[in-house]
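Fill in residues.
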């Protein structure tokens, strides 16, 4: 069920309008960009894009998790700025972006080069370093940043204990200090603190041009041969009137699905009480999410808890009759066991939950 829920998480993402209390001036209207000439890094075949923005890279000293978060007035900023590898580090590369700072920086840190030296090596090799802005943090908590002399004002960075914040084309010079203060003073997990830093930046005026996209990427501090299993949170808002509000919504939804996934893991270990507790917690975190209710109902029915599954199926069937048809298809796919007991459970659901 975990793979199905992962698909559902993507499918459930929808655009959320800006909160009414922020007012119409919270983000300016999107503007048209002029094209940017090709400015390749020495030895690189790539081109730069104008991802002028504010971002943070950080390592959680308690869990070892590392992450990067960003907002910008540029379409799909996360696809260019955010880079991270479990057990290695995190990178934000922005201003006139050279994407290779991401993979090259992570490769250097993976080889044992500390973040400050890794960044220094790449900056020294970059003929266009004056146009770049980059933040690095490694798995040991070493952080570093670079703001080129040609980054558009207000531009600057601050390197703290295990983190770096950086920003350019800001409305004023208060943004970077506000980000640092928010990250250091906010309680909660790494995602909470990264989001707080972004909110603080926007609260001081943020990007001079307004808002458009945002992203957050968090990986574990565990170095592994299966890094895809250690990406804890990876969410992007490509185009929104209020990307930070939408990013927070997605983080909340992601946490809800994570609790359901934890329930699946508990179920694999035959810990039914633990699984049910996780399922209940996840659904309380996203009470309007029908997809989640449906698949939790399927899981309950598949382990013989048909009575407990009925309210969840009823909610799904009221939402859309297509869920009824999907239930019919589950035994053949062995999602609900294709046994006499499993087929009887499906028939009971179809008879009583509609």
């Amino acid at each position: 069920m975990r793979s199905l829920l992962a698909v559902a998480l993507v499918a459930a993402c929808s655009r959320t309008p800006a909160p009414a209390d922020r007012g119409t001036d919270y983000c300016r209207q999107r503007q048209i960009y002029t094209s940017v000439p090709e400015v390749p890094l020495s030895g690189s075949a790539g081109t730069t894009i104008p991802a002028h923005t504010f971002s943070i890279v950080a390592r959680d000293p308690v869990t070892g998790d590392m992450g990067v978060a960003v907002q910008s007035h540029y379409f799909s900023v996360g696809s260019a700025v955010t880079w991270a590898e479990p057990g290695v580090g995190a990178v934000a590369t922005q201003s006139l972006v050279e994407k290779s700072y991401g993979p090259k920086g992570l490769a250097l840190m993976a080889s044992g080069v500390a973040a400050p030296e890794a960044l220094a090596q790449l900056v020294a090799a970059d003929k266009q370093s004056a146009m770049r802005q980059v933040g690095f943090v490694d798995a040991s908590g070493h952080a570093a940043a670079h703001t080129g002399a040609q980054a558009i004002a207000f531009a600057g960075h601050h390197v703290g204990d295990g983190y770096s914040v950086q920003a350019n084309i800001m409305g004023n010079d208060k943004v970077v200090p506000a980000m640092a203060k928010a990250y250091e003073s906010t309680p909660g997990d790494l995602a909470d603190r990264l989001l707080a830093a972004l909110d603080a930046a926007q609260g001081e005026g943020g990007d001079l041009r307004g808002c458009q996209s945002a992203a957050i990427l968090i990986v574990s501090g565990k170095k592994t041969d299966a890094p895809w299993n250690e990406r804890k949170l990876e969410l992007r808002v490509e185009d929104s009137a209020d990307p930070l509000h939408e990013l927070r919504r997605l983080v909340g939804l992601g946490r809800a699905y994570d609790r359901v996934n934890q329930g699946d893991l508990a179920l694999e270990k035959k810990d039914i009480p633990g699984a049910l507790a996780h399922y209940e917690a996840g659904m309380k975190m996203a009470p309007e999410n029908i997809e989640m209710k449906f698949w939790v109902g399927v899981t309950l029915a598949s382990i013989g808890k048909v009575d407990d599954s009925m309210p969840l199926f009823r909610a799904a069937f009221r939402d859309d009759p297509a869920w009824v048809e999907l239930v019919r298809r589950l035994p053949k796919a062995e999602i609900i066991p294709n046994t006499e007991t499993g087929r009887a459970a499906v028939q009971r659901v179809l008879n009583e939950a509609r």
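The CA atoms of residues 6 and 217 lie 16 Å apart.
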